[in-house]
Automatic annotation (TrEMBL):
Pfam families per the UniProt record, alphabetical: Lipase_GDSL_2
GO molecular function: hydrolase activity, acting on ester bonds
Domain SGNH hydrolase-type esterase: 33-184
PANTHER family membership: PUTATIVE (AFU_ORTHOLOGUE AFUA_2G17250)-RELATED (PTHR43695), RHAMNOGALACTURONAN ACETYLESTERASE (PTHR43695:SF1)
Protein name (Swiss-Prot/TrEMBL): Rhamnogalacturonan acetylesterase
Family from the record: Belongs to the 'GDSL' lipolytic enzyme family.
Origin species: Plebeiibacterium marinum
Record's keyword terms, sorted: Hydrolase
């Protein structure tokens, strides 16, 4: 009888220790994307990527690994081996947020992906991530701040956000519709106020762009924070396993 009690107690202790160890292991979120997400050197530019700010919206139990790179499309990200680097690093239960479209819409041949190719490239990433027991999330591109007659228009991204939504729906994987959410944000702010989110800067502010810029695609810190907050809120809202509970909204 005593032996049975000892064995039962030992098993309970082992299970408790195992649960504590599992809780202490950080969950990784990899970010695959373009210049709107990548990290920038604060000493060189005021430009920021939303994924650069994402760690501020999670507690210490989540590790953000930003692998986004400027100028990349699904086509070039795969061709340059950047996706393979991510694939070699991910572990079971890691998350991978995949956000492309801006450069897929480009006319540059090394970047451009047709609609069928764009869908095929995303599908490849999703399947390969799942094969490693990781958890892919699709995200639409952020809106391009294009106003005409006080109305926001965004026709430069064409059908790429729609393809992203349709693919997420057909595969039943999480979708973060950053295009729609950022579009709503910009519309509510209006033409002039929303410039503070993007790289609308005067001369002498940025060492990389000394003459200033009127850029409706890339973000300054307020815009990067706004998108990161959108992403974190969606993760919380969708109650994504192992990361939703660690979202911190300041």
């Amino acid at each position: 009888m005593k032996l049975r009690i000892i064995i039962t107690s030992a098993i309970a202790v082992i299970l408790a220790i195992s649960c504590i160890q599992q809780k202490s292991q950080k969950v990784n979120i990899f970010i695959c994307g373009d210049s709107t997400a990548q990290s920038y050197n604060p000493s060189k530019t005021v430009m920021r990527g939303w994924a650069q700010m994402l760690p501020e919206y999670f507690d210490k139990n989540v590790n953000i690994i930003n692998k986004a790179k400027a100028g990349r499309s699904t086509k070039s990200y795969l061709a340059e081996g950047r996706w393979q680097e991510v694939l070699d690093s991910i572990k079971p239960n890691d998350y991978v947020i995949i956000q492309f479209g801006h450069n897929d819409a480009s006319t540059k041949p090394e970047r451009h992906a047709s609609y069928p190719d764009y869908k095929s490239n995303l599908l490849k990433m999703i399947k390969e991530a799942k094969a490693k027991q990781a958890r892919p999330i699709l995200a639409t591109s952020i809106v391009m701040r294009t106003f005409k007659d006080n109305a926001l228009i965004d026709d430069r991204l064409k059908g790429y956000p729609a393809i992203t939504r349709q693919l997420a729906d057909s595969l039943n994987i999480p979708l973060i519709d950053t295009w729609l959410k950022s579009r709503d944000l910009v519309i509510m702010m209006g033409d002039e106020p929303s410039k503070e989110l993007y790289m609308w800067i005067p001369a002498g502010v940025d060492s990389i762009r000394p003459d200033g810029s009127q850029d409706d695609t890339h973000l300054q810190a307020p815009g990067a924070h706004a998108i990161a907050k959108i992403v974190a809120k969606e993760i919380k809202k969708q109650n994504l396993k192992d990361i939703a509970e660690y979202v911190v909204i300041p």
